[in-house]
């Protein structure tokens, strides 16, 4: 096998190369080996009076000499191992060399033909130096051998060898990458916000990443084995954080690699790859990706998702896209990723969510014709219903104050802009033509200046409740506080009652809630709110209670969420008591972003009517809530439970699950249709929302209901059909 070093361009040979045996420092800057070895063994010290030989007895001197001899023997033993390992890096063993020559052609090192000025940049010098280190790593199980050697050395403070990844880290840490920082600031989403600044607790990712606490290993070395095809079972090891596949005969990478979402390091150097699958762009947490010495010509646009990538090795691909290589040479890996992210072409079609019809038994009707299923609309569920139906739409629209680069680095700059996202959300809201619309994270100023005028033009009236913090802010600052909003069609419903719910104030100011330490230490500082309204359906004279809320986000405070929803339901009980003596006789709908999964105390409480010994609330003291358990008299069910729920309503790189719900009372309402989730064929191109098609990190939910029967109950409010027609005043707060 030819020696790569002899064939490198002259300018590459002149630049300092990093020695993998010496902590990543340039070979021409290394300290004298003898001094280094003694320093690492804590022997390089100035002589003190206590250390002078004259002060030691002959027996002590003999003991010291024996210790020094042992240390010298250990040092010689380690140096021998290091020399053998260095020889192994420089040239394969004779038997290995014969096997390699028999199975793959003799490779002549090639390079990307960049102009000479670009080859002198710091970023491209990194490429060249690490390319040379990579070519020395193509022996069988190089990384495993390296790890084993360093492990055998144990705690001995001698010079340890460095792998390709460690050399990369040393290079990057030693450079002041001014251009990259400038590019990062230039492409930041936060220009109009005046910089990123400190993160408010509401901006922290809502749910933490789940890990594998019982997994004892996470790295797999399959390097240097001439593997032509990867076995499918490899991609079942979802716990892997490092995967080494360099020095093989791979011509393709299976798309199933997308399942290895925890990968931080992937080495595919020295293979026969002509392309890599776009699914590699879904490995959001990748930090070091080596693609040296292949036949790649470009990168998938989905690589714009790899926002955590510190280094991308592409040198040694002679036909690689010069435009992309130029960006990397001038500005580095991060700027290349940002370029791919912000210049994503609209090649993926806008997602078409299917409308799912349910029969009288509340079972989804399967459409024989796939095209007919895609074209189905809520109006198709109206057969024979005689105007006894209504639709409900709920969506967390992602307040633009939370849509920062720190929260959503995977989203293109222009797609994260509020004007762009608002236009998408507006289009979807109006296209739904829903009778009742419940929104969360609506900014106060946007509600007054944009949403209210917009919906008014389309026949809606609105209600709004801002978070409690708005009361502590100045009038100008309060405009930026978000809250919950309900819009309803004034020709379909009339307003009877609007009851704002401020969870913290209700608990602190009401005698029915015990003031425990958990109330003051955990609950008091959360300022989430809700709205409880009573609407009258004009065609049927039915009254319905509609609640909209946004619970606290932090999974470390699931007990707080349970108390918040407990307070909400108690307030609904108070409202229902004004409508009928039997609380189960009044139709109810609860919408919102509950920030709670299907296994939470919140979901258990709402769906079963009781929750006491749930792990979310165990060990907490909230008075009767925890002593007697959370309970309510209503019969509630999640509308989406009829179709097994969507796969998710919240989609981010670190968390994908159901957080949003539409609960209803099946005793007096029937589900006629539901808006389905997103297809896998669509989501496979993204690591999270928002994106170019969807304006929030949450999916909207859309349900169609039918009244089971008309109520003849006269309420204490003295309402009548004529009163419904008269509407009612919207109480805005």
* Alpha-beta content class: alpha/beta
Number of strands: 22
Task: Give the total of domains.
Answer: 3
Radius of gyration: 33 Å
CATH homologous superfamily placement of the largest domain: Endonuclease/exonuclease/phosphatase
Domain Endonuclease/exonuclease/phosphatase: 394-698
Pfam family, one: Exo_endo_phos
InterPro entries: CCR4/nocturin_mRNA_transcr, Endo/exonu/phosph_ase_sf, Endo/exonuclease/phosphatase, Leu-rich_rpt, Leu-rich_rpt_4, Leu-rich_rpt_typical-subtyp, LRR_dom_sf
Family: Belongs to the CCR4/nocturin family.
Write the layout of secondary structure elements.
Elements (H helix, E strand, L loop, with lengths): L3 H4 L2 H5 L18 H8 L17 H33 L3 H10 L12 H4 L2 H14 L6 H12 L10 H11 L3 H9 L32 E3 L20 E3 L20 E3 L20 E3 L20 E3 L8 H10 L1 H10 L12 E3 L12 H6 L13 E8 L16 H4 L1 H15 L3 E8 H14 L2 E7 L8 H4 L3 E8 L3 E10 H7 L7 H7 L5 E9 L4 E9 L7 H19 L11 E6 L7 H8 L1 E2 L12 H4 L2 E2 L5 E2 L11 E3 L2 E3 L2 E5 L4 E7 L4 H4 L17 E7 L13 H5 L8
Parallel strand pairs: 1-2, 2-3, 3-4, 4-5, 7-8, 13-14
Antiparallel strand pairs: 6-21, 7-22, 8-10, 9-10, 11-12, 12-13, 14-20, 15-16, 17-20, 18-19, 21-22
